[in-house]
Amino acid sequence: MGNWGKWRNIEGVYRDISVLGKQGLYQIRMADTYNNPIPIPRLAGTDESGIIYIGKSTKLRPRIENFYCGRHSGGGMYNLVRLRLKGNKRYKGYYLQYRYMNINNSEMMENAETRMLRTYFRKYCELPPFNSTVPGGK
Questions:
Q1: Which of 46, 91, 127, 136 suits 116 as a labelling partner, its CA being 20 to 30 A distant?
Q2: 8 exposed, middle or buried (CB, 10 Å; 0-12, 13-18, 19+)?
Q3: Closest CA to 75 of 135, 128, 16, 8
Q4: CA–CA separation, 85 vs 91, rounded Å?
Q5: Is residue 129 part of a domain?
Q6: Percent of the chain having pLDDT more than 70?
Q7: Other Cβ atoms closer than 10 A to 82
């Protein structure tokens, strides 16, 4: 499996040509104005990495754009929640960042996403806030 790229501001995904034509896994997190992740309280602990979504796609840039614009199930829910976060001091000035890992094999990509989501679930007893299911259902 590949390595994660650096965290990037999600608003720049429209201009990020390095993502064009890529497929693989991606993560979206909340960060403060200093590029530090914003910890998110979970049932079984705090996610210090601030991950709000884990996904995969054969077309990463459009998929990440769709999340940010709300044309994606997780992104649609995020856009509803975003309005409520504006008044919360904990999230004042936050923004979203994404990173991706290029994986060119569909089966490897599916397995890697499943492993990541199951690992997150085992650690925190729930999925990232805007994921709704674990692939494979178990």
A1: 91
A2: middle
A3: 128
A4: 6
A5: no
A6: 96
A7: 14
Q: Is the pLDDT of residue 138 over 60?
A: no
Q: Check whether 6 has a pLDDT greater than 70.
A: yes
Q: How many CB atoms are located within 10 Å of the residue 113 CB?
A: 22
CA pair distance 95, 92, nearest whole angstrom: 9
Q: How many separate domains does the chain show?
A: 1
More confident residue, 60 or 136: 60
Single pTM value for the model: 0.91
Range of the domain at 22: 8-124
32 in a structural domain: yes
Reported as a single tens digit per residue, the pLDDT across 94-110 is 889 999 999 999 999 99
Q: Is 113 part of a structural domain of the chain?
A: yes
